[in-house]
Write a structure and sequence with these properties.
Elements: E1 4-5, E2 10-11, H1 19-26, E3 45-47, H2 51-55, H3 60-63, H4 71-82, E4 87-90, H5 94-100, E5 105-106, H6 123-129, E6 133-134, E7 143-145, E8 150-153, H7 162-181
Parallel strand pairs: 3-4, 4-8, 5-6
Antiparallel strand pairs: 1-2, 7-8
């Protein structure tokens, strides 16, 4: 959608970036285009959140509950779901599942801002408006929708210390791996 200068917290008007190129930079090169991802080749799929999920994998940042999900993201979610393979999503990424998988249970944390601790609490209402069930969870917890094999955790939806976010993401990954064994 746009490049953000995180030293200023503002969009950089003069800069553009390619999502695939940036992914390769962060992952040190070993990446594949999402268009090539197939449930037949993997045991599970995990979608990290962040503004990329709300701005590049979907239009949620601009359109809220009326968002559109990137075609390959929608295909991957539906394909893994149809194959009965686990899907993990953290931070804002659970809105992707809420939009694509009707009736899914997800969490983005709490439903009230609680003095700024949960600054994106309004996302829970958008999730409900999409026809999904929002489950209140703490930042160190993961919610498991056993029926749909979808595991979610709030991550950076909460203003807290990084080790708490780490613990929640770890819980999500652990639950995804447990579902792989079932």
């Amino acid at each position: 959608m746009h490049v953000v200068d995180h030293t200023k917290g503002q969009p950089s008007e003069s800069e553009t970036r390619n999502v695939l190129t940036e992914s390769a930079r962060i992952a040190r090169g070993k990446i594949n285009d999402l268009a090539r991802l197939s449930a037949a080749d993997h045991d599970a799929a995990i979608f990290p959140g962040g503004f990329g999920a709300a701005k590049n994998l979907s239009t949620f940042a601009a359109d809220g509950k009326d968002c559109k999900v990137h075609g390959d993201v929608e295909r991957v979610l539906k394909e893994f779901h149809a194959a009965g393979k686990p899907i993990g999503l953290c931070c804002i990424a659970p809105v992707l599942a809420a939009k694509v998988l009707r009736g899914v249970e997800v969490t983005v944390g709490h439903e009230q801002e609680e003095g700024g601790r949960w600054p994106y609490a309004g996302t829970a209402e958008a999730i409900k408006a999409l026809g999904a069930k929002h489950c209140v969870k703490g930042v160190t917890e993961a919610h498991v929708d056993q029926k749909n094999k979808v595991v979610t955790t709030p991550a950076f939806m909460c203003e807290t210390e990084l080790h708490h976010i780490h613990d929640g993401i770890g819980a999500m990954v652990k639950k995804v791996l447990e579902l792989c064994r079932k």
